Amino acid sequence: MTYRPGHLATLLDALSRRDDIYLERGEDFISKNRMNIQQLIKQDKVQTSRYFSVKMESFSNLIYSIQKAQWQDSQYRSILQELGKGNSIQDYSLDSSFQLLLFEDQVVVPNDPTIQLRILQKSHYSPLARHPGQEKTLKLVKRNFHWSGMTQFTNDYVSSCQQCSRSKNILHKKFGLLKTLPIPNGRWICLSMDFITQLPLSNSFDSLLVIVDRFSKMAVFIPTMSSITSLDLAHSFIKNIFSKHGLPSSI
């Protein structure tokens, strides 16, 4: 194998670099190369706005809805009027293409859940986005829009998406199967206990400690306070259960 200078390799890419195909640029170049991507993008389908790259009627309806909602909101209407007079307001500006109110170059969306939901649907169900998670959906929305409570609204929306819930990855170990508790061999051997809280105050007590024998289903109701500590619970158990029925094998 010997080195050969590139200018001597005249037949190196003869099949892929035919000089009779790419004769010239411009319209002739596009018409003679049908697979060129420039022919797939028509000028009448391109929107020059910095917010929407592809012209779609649904986006036009959304823009109109946002415009209408901004003027109906008393707070944003006053800002629009001041900007229309030529006055400057910190962090606010007016978009020259659609006459939309902007906050730090993001479209201001008034407190209208219907419009906010439409924006989230376009960001979350977009064929390019393909159901991103909470953080990615929020990032997509924040690129172009701004409204108060956006983070919580987005998280609630994504967490309620059925398709995301069905297809998301499980990051923890699978839960074990439910198993029934074994049947006790006698009374007061296996117990269960729980608290009933937030009861009306009676004799300075507002809660009940309920202890149930799983064999006989006998229940003991012990008045107590919601501020009971583990030490107080132990004393109450010894006084009301252990002193009468002995020490159980499980609780």
Number of strands: 7
Order of strands across the main sheet:
1-2-3-4
Helix content bin = 25-40%
pLDDT below 50 for ≥5 consecutive residues: which ranges? 43-57
Write down the overall geometry: elongated
Termini, distance in Å? Answer: 84 Å
What string, H for helix and E for strand, traces the elements in order?
HHHEEEHHEHHEEEH
Portion of residues in beta strands equals 5-15%
Which architecture of the domain at 57-165 would the CATH scheme give at its second level?
A: Orthogonal Bundle
The secondary-structure class comes to alpha+beta
List the quaternary state of the chains: single chain
Q: What is the CATH class of the domain at 57-165?
A: Mainly Alpha
Largest sheet: 4 strands, mixed
Query: CATH topology of the domain at 57-165, which one?
Result: Endonuclease III, domain 1
Number of helices: 8
The overall pLDDT average reads: 81
- Rounded to the nearest angstrom, the radius of gyration is 35 Å
Organism: Austropuccinia psidii MF-1
Pfam families: Integrase_H2C2
Domain Integrase zinc-binding: 113-169
InterPro entries: Integrase_H2C2 (IPR041588), Retrovirus_Pol_polyprotein (IPR050951), RNaseH-like_sf (IPR012337), RNaseH_sf (IPR036397)
Task: Explain what you see.
Residues 113-169 form the Integrase zinc-binding domain. InterPro entries: Integrase_H2C2 (IPR041588), Retrovirus_Pol_polyprotein (IPR050951), RNaseH-like_sf (IPR012337), RNaseH_sf (IPR036397). GO terms for molecular function: nucleic acid binding. This is Integrase zinc-binding domain-containing protein. With 251 residues, this protein is of the alpha+beta class. Among the domains are: 57-165, Endonuclease III, domain 1 (Orthogonal Bundle); 191-245, 2-Layer Sandwich (Nucleotidyltransferase, domain 5), CATH 3.30.420. Helices cover 34% and strands 12% of the residues. The chain is built from 8 helices and 7 strands. Strand 6 and strand 7 form a beta hairpin. Helix 5 (134-142) packs across helix 6 (150-159). The longest helix has 16 residues, at 57-72. The radius of gyration is 35 Å and the shape is elongated. The termini are far apart. Mean pLDDT is 81; it is low at 43-57.
